[in-house]
Amino acid sequence: MKRHEFLRELHKATANRNYLEIGVNDGRSLALSRVPSVAIDPAFKVVTEIKCDVHLVKATSDDFFARENPLVHLRGGRHPVRNLRRGRSPIGYWRRTSLDLSFIDGMHLMEFALRDFINVEKHSDWSSVIVFDDMLPRSIDEAARDRHTDAWTGDVYKLVEILNRYRPELVTVLVDTQPTGQLVVFGADHTSTVLQDKYDEIMTEFKVPDPQKVPEAILERVKAVKPETLVGADFWGPLVRARNRGLSRSRGWEPLRSALEGLSASR
Ligand SMILES: C[S@@+](CC[C@H](N)C(=O)[O-])C[C@H]1O[C@@H](n2cnc3c(N)ncnc32)[C@H](O)[C@@H]1O
Questions:
Q1: 61 alpha carbon to ligand 1 midpoint, in Å?
Q2: Which three-class secondary structure state does DSSP give residue 193?
Q3: According to the model, what pLDDT value does residue 59 have?
Q4: 61 ligand 1 Cβ < 6 A
Q5: Which of 6, 7, 24 maximizes ligand 1 atoms within 8 Å of its Cβ, making it the mutation to test the pocket?
Q6: Ligand 1 proximity of 40 Cβ (cutoff 6 Å)
Q7: Which of 67, 138, 167, 207 is most buried (CB neighbours < 10 A)?
């Protein structure tokens, strides 16, 4: 399955109520969205028909997330919460926007992708689905930090190891899409500061000059699940219902985690 086809299936499976995209380019992945969206790219050149209500931002993702209330377009962004307990003024009460589906496909260097994840997670919840593109380079050349190939993944493949090591409570699923694979992350926790706290330590170990030592398991895609297996799994319905009912992390995430771990174990 090609990467955009997989994304199209994810839009359906997640029944997402909003969408965030980092890295728009000509708009082909953004064209799949039909819900209120925010899309960020400092150099987009959209030539595709876009069929959603989108805040298209010409900025780097770092600059975008440094703004006050960056997701205001997605309503819920920061607005006074109504029906507060009697006698309390609504002023000062704000509801968070929680992103249902995010696609991280901006600058293909691991430090940018990690910061993108940190920023996206701040606006996510246990039910959010966060997708990274280009996580399965096919060669060491394609994975170089210093781009010298036509198709380029850069070294964002390192995010799998970083997330698994520093955030073992997340569930990460590598997906064998064409041409260069994707990673789907479940179980986000907007209260976690581990990645931010360990950012310098992570850079010291992982931000290394070319040539990159891409693990054989990545090049051979040994841990990647078939895209059809993930989009056809049974947990999507329960995830969407639990999310839409606003179930808490403890009631919503734990049953989902078991289903996802079963899926990872079956690959
Ligand atoms: C691979 S393309 C995106 C392709 C698109 N998502 C798709 O699937 O059709 C990567 C894009 O990331 C953008 N980009 C580069 N640096 C960025 C940054 N710091 N923040 C956001 N986007 C960035 C580039 O301008 C480029 O258009």
A1: 9
A2: coil
A3: 98
A4: yes
A5: 24
A6: yes
A7: 167
Total-model pTM: 0.94
**131 has which bridge partners?**
103, 184
Instruction: Give CA–CA dist 113/106, Å, rounded.
Output: 7
Residue 13, classed as helix, strand or coil, is helix
Q: Is the residue at 70 inside a domain?
A: no
Atom of ligand 1 nearest to the CA of 7: 8
Q: What is the pLDDT of residues 185-198, one digit of tens each?
A: 999 999 999 999 99
> Which stretches of the chain drop beneath a pLDDT of 50?
77-79, 83-84, 87, 89-90
> In this structure, is residue 75 part of a structural domain?
no
Cβ atoms of residues 166 and 202 within 8 Å: yes
Is 82 a member of any domain? Answer: no
- Scanning the structure block, which residue is given the tokens 């309390």? 88
Residue 30 CA, ligand 1 centroid: distance in Å: 11
What is the rounded distance in angstroms from the CA atom of residue 163 to the CA atom of residue 172?
Answer: 8
Whole-Å CA distances, 14 to 11, 18, 112, 170, 245: 6, 10, 26, 18, 14
Angle at 117 between CA 243 and CA 35, to 5 degrees: 45
The DSSP 8-state label assigned to residue 180 in this structure reads: T
Mutation test residue for ligand 1: of 4, 20, 25, the one with most atoms within 8 Å of CB: 25
**What is the Cα–Cα distance from 167 to 148, expressed in whole angstroms?**
32
Domain containing residue 155: CATH number: 3.40.50.150
What distance in angstroms lies between residue 35's CA and the mean position of ligand 1's atoms?
20
Ligand 1 lined by 32 (C-beta under 6 Å): no
Specify the ligand 1 atom closest to the Cα of 43.
25
Contact 107 CB / ligand 1 (< 6 Å): yes
Residue owning tokens 């394609």 = 142
